[in-house]
Amino acid sequence: MQFDILNTSIVFLLILFAALCHAGWSTIVKQHNSFSIMGMTSIVEIVVFTPLVFFVPFPPLEIWYFIIASVILHGFYRLSVIYSYKFGDLSFVYPIARGGSSLLIAIFTLIILQDHISLLGFAGILNVCMGILLISYNKNYKFNFNAFVLAVSTAFLIAIYTIIDGLGVRLSENKFSYLFWLLLLNGIPLLLISIFSNEKLHSNLDTKIISWGILAGILAILSYGIVVWSMQFIEIAYVSSIRETSIIIATIFGLLILKEPEAKKRIFPAILVIVGISTVYFQI
User: What is the pLDDT along the chain (284 residues), one digit of tens a residue?
Assistant: First the structure.
C-alpha cells in the first residue's frame, strides 16, 4: 500500500502505543480477578461506544457478517486468555499467543488476502516470531502443556479475528462505523459469562476491581481500536508484527510487577523482536 512517509511513521508510533496498552491490559487481567476485570472491560466499552455509534452510519448487512464473526471470536479469545493465565505465567503464555498469531497472520494474508509482503518483510516477521517464541523457552522447567495448548489456541483465535477485522475495516465505507460497532459489541459475550459464572461479577465488585477494571477497559479500547484503524493503511501482517512489541513490555511487566522469576531470562530474546520490528518498519 502506498502511504505518505510521515503518516506511516505516525501510524507506526500509534501501533507501538497500542502495544504498550495491550501489555498493560494483559498484566491487569493476570494480576486481578480475571472474570471480573473482563466484565468491567466490557462495561467500559459499552459505556464509551453506545453514544458514539449514533454519530456514524449503520453498517450495511455485508459488514455485519464481519462484525458478528469477530464478536464471537473475541468472546472465545477473552475466555482463552483467562484460562491460559490461570495455568501459566504472563511471560510464558503471552509470547506464545502473540508470536504464534503474528506468524499465522503473515501466512493467512499471503494465501487468502494476497497482500504484498516483501521477502525482507517476511524475514522480519519471522524474526519477530522467533524472538517471541524464544522468550517462552526454558530448558530447566517442566514443559507447561496446559498453558501451551491454551496459548496456541489463543494464537489461532487472534489470527482469525485479526484477518476478519482487517477485511471488515477495509471493506467498510465508513471505517469508524465498523470500529465503533465492533468495540461496542465485542465484550458482551464475556460480560454475560462473567455475570453468570462461578466468579460472579456483581459479587466480586469492590473499589479496587472497579478502578482496575475501568483502566483495563480504557487500555483494551486503545490497544485494539488503534490496531484495527491502522489496518486500512498498512498490510495486516505488518500491523500485527509491529504490535507484538507488547511482548517485550509484557515480559518486563512480568518481572517488575508480577515478580515472575523466569521473566528476566526472557528479556534477551527480545533483541530479535526489536530487529524484526525495525526490518518490518522499513518495508512498509
Answer: 445 655 778 888 899 999 899 889 888 888 875 778 888 888 999 999 999 999 999 999 999 999 999 999 999 998 898 888 888 887 778 878 887 787 788 777 767 766 666 778 778 777 777 776 676 666 666 667 888 889 889 999 999 998 999 889 989 999 999 999 999 998 888 888 877 766 665 566 678 888 888 999 999 999 989 988 888 888 777 787 778 778 778 878 877 787 776 666 666 776 777 677 667 656 65
Cell of 270: 527480545
Q: Which is it for the CA torsion 187, 197, 200, 23, positive or negative? A: negative
| Dist CA 208 CA 140 (whole Å) | 37
Ranges of each domain in the chain: 5-281
